[in-house]
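User: Could you check the structure of this?
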Amino acid sequence: MRTAWTVGVMCTCVGLVLAMVTTVNTALPVLAEALGAGQAQQTWIVDAYTLVLAALVLPAGALGDRYGRRGVLIIGLVVFALSCAVPLVVDSAGWLIVSRAVTGLGAALIMPATLSIITASFPPGRRSRAIGVWAAIAGLGGLLGLALAGLELQRYSWHAVFVAPAVLAVVLAVCAATVPTSRDRQARPLDPLGTALSALSLGVLVFGILESAEHGWDSLEVIGSLVAGVLLAALFVRVELRRRYPLLDVRLFADRMFAAGSLSVTLQFTAAFGALYGLAQYLQLVQGYSPLKSGLALWPIAVTTLPLALVSAWLSERFGMRVVSCVGLLIIVTGMVLIGRFDPGTSYSTLAVAVAVLGGGLGLTAPPATAAIIDSVPEDKYGVASAVNDATREVGAALGIALAGSVLTAGYTHRMTGATASLPPLARAAADNSIAAALPIAQRLGAAGRGLATAAQSAFSHGMWLSCLVLAAIVFAGMLTLLCLRLPRARRDSAPR
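Assistant: Sure, the predicted structure tokens are below.
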């Protein structure tokens, strides 16, 4: 009974962390209009949270290993709650971005502790089922955020999408005090240089991707950022190889199962969160759905994700992690292509089938990938493995959102140039920058603005198609990489799943 309570609390915590990404996705059109946020600010409102979470999850996992995972989890929940309450007293796009970054810090403290506590609470024979449940909830957390945000926006102002998570975080902090804690028996010193290099390398890389929407992929600023990010990542690897107690023992990636699981998780979340970034706006701004309806419209993902997540570990044992992962990733590619074909006239039945295909791919790949990471390390490194699992999820989510946002914006702006030529300069600049700005301008123009609205919706659909193609190509390339790896069917020390 106590282990079931522990799994329930930990899964709710991880669901809250991931729901907070898509909650803001759903509210983004309302936020953009209320705060006057441009497309670049909208992207940062979404991405600041994910970027900080991805950058700090490894050191946060190390803190849990050293000082106790339950204590770090509770601190994270408190930081999460306080930062979510900031928009109640400060009402501007800039301050919202700052508060989202601080919320990302709280989330970084929460995520690795959840999987570490679950892993330490179960013997090997029962662990795989608990990990499968955790992975399934983690996969559905974003979907839950869409639905809850839609329900909140149906009755309340946009502030509600921050108040509700703050309240839930406080409740979870109380509940977390009742679960068992764990920590490494041999406390290792922290690695400040490794922490700084890991955060810098990821931040510079994502910054370069984001800036590509405004300056183009061939600009010196973008190219310089991407090159600097790669060099910083290489320096991080070099430093960690020489550390006696590194933040991350990069030699773990020489283990093919560990590397394959990490790559698979990264690809899954790149595709999933990149798709949800575009879909949340598409449903409201192109299809005209309310926030609540847009959140509920995506629930066909759960119809396929949850059942396949519950059987995927067994399939992986029977056919091998490589086969199951490659099939799942190919299904994700198919779902991305189907989603990219959406236009203003797409029917709901077509949409439901497409997102259900995407959900099936996610459900098939997530639990085996998580198990591959955890099963590849000894017990005294569960915290590190959990942090890597979380980091790959958040790196994937950050890159997916950044890529989708930059490619979508570039495609939208390119298509809108001719349609806004007759508008006054300020209105033209706003309409070219964001569909959320173009539609209110078209509405104020009355009958004369119908052409502008149609052009904006068509341009957005074109941008979403381009972004889905890019994401699908990345996942397909990753699938080919996994296909070339020779992986064992199961760990010799793993219990049957």
